[in-house]
Amino acid sequence: MRMYVLIISIFLGVVPLSFFTKVFLNTYEEKAIDNRITELESQGKALSNLLLPTGYLTTGQIPEIDTEIARIADLYEGRILIVNNNLNIVKDTYSLEDGRYLVSQEVIQSFRGNNRSIRDRKNQILKMTYPIMDNNKDIKGIIVMSFSSKDIYGIRDSLEQRAVLFAMTLAILIVVFAIYISGKLTKPLTDVVNSINRFSEGYLEEGFSIKGYNEIEKISDSFNHMISKMNKLESSRQEFVSNVSHELKTPITSIKVLADSLLMQEDAPVELYREFLTDITEEIERENKIITDLLSLVKLDKKAGDMNIVSININELLEQILKRLSPIAKRKNIELIYESFRPVLAEVDEVKLSLAISNLIENAIKYNVDEGWVRVSLNADHKYFFIKVADSGIGIPEDAQDFIFERFYRVDKARSRESGGTGLGLAITKNVIQMHRGAIRVYSKEGEGTTFNVRVPLNYIS
Predict the structure, then answer these.
(1) Percent of the chain scoring above 70 in pLDDT
(2) In this predicted model, which residue has the larger pLDDT, 26 or 371?
């Protein structure tokens, strides 16, 4: 990238300078030549007014006029020919062609009224013709002027040399400046690349702070934020693995203890065997529930493309869930109350949403007081449907409410295990709601009950 910055800087600096220098020199040359032609036309007009009245075109021997012609020729370092209408050269300031005839394309065209100026850049000569006209605008003769333009091109060459020297100096300065700026610009990027390479090697704990222009600082902040999230994710994964190992190991340990206890007793009564086997069966069931919930989480962690979206009646779905959970509620004398404010049709994955809402209602029943109540309500607007699950249960401590959706988190571990909880239910519920592009909120006060508010779009957003 540094080389690209250097090349671009040179291109944007030297190339425009060379272009504008060329334009300036050409403009100067054109302007200087045009000014010289204007001056010569003025001198030609003055000579024309002097030659015709004096009869110089006939005699050609007037000292005062010869002197004026010679002065003009010397002034511009050139040669002047005076030609009459017979094409006879009346005066040659070089005294080489006096009395001879001049038949040339320029002279003939001038007698026809077409004055010409010729620029010979190679030989640095400027040629032009000027007519000598009487009062009737009849052309009586031609003034042929041939002057050196070395002074003009000399100045141009001098300016060009200075421009080249200036351009070279500026080019060196631009290169030095470009090297400095490119280093200044690319160093933060190089630091970013080095940090990313370190990150790719597994050094997740290493963040970086790069000072530079705003965009690089934003990249640095974003990268540090990503590293922070990756570290949290890695910690979460490690904690998850640890929790899974612990949760799976606990029932196995219990089963082993129960089995060993039976083996150590040679004449254990049948009733004791039944009691221990019942406990073993419960531990096996608990192990099975943990594995089932883990498999559910694995499936939910897949992409949303696995969603089986259909349009269903949410009212009927909630009624089916409540009917299925009513036996559990009856065992604790929990009153199930269902409120539906309007019919609701929505595009959802019926199996996954049923699992999520079932977890909420089942928790409301399990962690409730005897002869308490659970109220489930359904409402909707033009964009979302809303499910509220409220209970009269034991509530959730305020300091635990931010963690209840984490995997294997239990507010009261002993109570959760007694009720058969795995600590995965709310994690599954939140995952399902998010897969539907929805949101879930909890409001609870310890000892006064808990309310979960669920919001899900009526139309699935892929």
Answers:
(1) 84
(2) 371
Q: In sequence order, which residues have a C-beta less than 8 Å from that of residue 18 and are 6 or more positions away?
A: 167
Q: Is the pTM of this model over 0.90?
A: no
SS (H, E, C) the chain: CHHHHHHHHHHHHHHHHHHHHHHHHHHHHHHHHHHHHHHHHHHHHHHHHHHHHHCHHHHCCCHHHHHHHHHHHHHCCEEEEEEECCCEEEEECCCCCCCCECCCHHHHHHHCCCCCEEEECCCCEEEEEEEEECCCCCEEEEEEEEEECHHHHHHHHHHHHHHHHHHHHHHHHHHHHHHHHHHHHHHHHHHHHHHHHHHHCCCCCCCCCCCCCHHHHHHHHHHHHHHHHHHHHHHHHHHHHHHHHHHHHHHHHHHHHHHHHHHHCCCCCHHHHHHHHHHHHHHHHHHHHHHHHHHHHHHHCCCHHHCCEEEEEHHHHHHHHHHHHHHHHHHCCCEEEEEECCCCEEEEEHHHHHHHHHHHHHHHHHCCCCCCEEEEEEEECCCEEEEEEEECCCCCCHHHCCCCCCCCCCCCHHHHHHCCCCCCHHHHHHHHHHHCCCEEEEEEECCCEEEEEEEEECCCCC
What tens digit of pLDDT does each residue of 352-373 get?
899 899 989 999 998 899 899 9
What domains can be seen in the chain, in order of their start residue?
2-155 (3.30.450.20), 214-298 (1.10.287.130), 302-457 (3.30.565.10)
* Contact present, 418 and 412 (Cβ < 8 Å): no
In angstroms, rounded to a whole number, what is the distance separating the alpha carbons of residues 220 and 202? 18
Residues 106-130 have pLDDT tens digits of 888 888 877 777 777 777 788 888 8
For 121, the token pair is 């850049």
Q: Is 347 exposed, middle or buried (0-12, 13-18, 19+ CB in 10 A)?
A: middle
Q: Which residue reads 């006879």 in tokens?
A: 88
CB count in 10 Å sphere of residue 149: 22
For residues 332 and 401, is the Cβ–Cβ distance under 8 A? Answer: no
Task: Say how many C-beta atoms besides its own lie within 10 A of residue 72's C-beta.
Answer: 19
- Tell me what pLDDT residue 414 has: 47
Q: Tens digits of per-residue pLDDT, 401-430?
A: 888 888 767 666 544 444 445 667 788 889
CA torsion sign for 426, 427, 433, 437 is positive
Cα within 13 Å of Cα(275), Cβ side: 7
